Amino acid sequence: MPSEAVNREDNIMMMVEPFHGEFGRFHFVLEATSTPHQYHIRTFPRFSSVCEFSLPKDRLVSLTNQYPRVDLPRAVHLELHAAIGNILHASRRAETIEKLIRDLGETGGSLSQDGSTNISNLLS
Question: Can you give the residue range of the structural domain that contains 75?
Answer without folding.
Answer: 10-91
